[in-house]
Sequence to fold (217 residues):
Amino acid sequence: MAVALKLILGAKNYSSWSLRPWLAMTVAGIPFEETVLPIYTPGAREKILEYSPSGKVPVLIDDKVQVWESLAIIEYVAEKFPSAGLWPQQSDVRAHARAVAHEMHGGFLPLRRSCPMNMRRAPGAIELVADALANVARIDEIWTDCRARYGGPFLFGAFGAADAMYAPVVSRFHTYDVAVGPIAHVYMDAVMSLPAWAEWEAQARRETWVLPELEIA
Fold:
């Protein structure tokens, strides 16, 4: 049987937005075919436009349906595959999960700019501006609160959509040796212990695309 879902991704070493739906779908066991494209290179946007009307990745293709933006893709597959359990079943917990997922999707720009995702970079600290440090503190607060409320090992018990949304931050915190509290560290370890994480990281390290503007010394 042919796989109906096609996920178009950016370079796995750098594309934090692409990691989110890929990880969510892989951990949930949702079958899909993937195409990985370079980003921020000559001709990349034109190639991406063949799949995505926004000219950005990721984009999910399901027959005639196109879904772009990482959170929208996760919402789509969560509805299509309800048994995957990407959102908590209890309505108040689900509302909380959606709130923190949307906060990630729309915020934390200083941290993103200071610490671009780069899974090949050897871990090492850099100096962060005050706004980025404020982002770190807020994320640490979210992770610590969710783990305290719902018991872990992930933000809302089992791995779900909210964890997928924060996975690139886990990568950033690890890569740039960002200081967080002990509960946040335990949460990071849980995410990075996923077999799907190891698979993505191995593929990222094998890529040959290098984007100098995303290589922070």
Q: What stands out?
A: The mean pLDDT is 95. The first helix runs from residue 16 to 28. The longest strand covers residues 5-10.
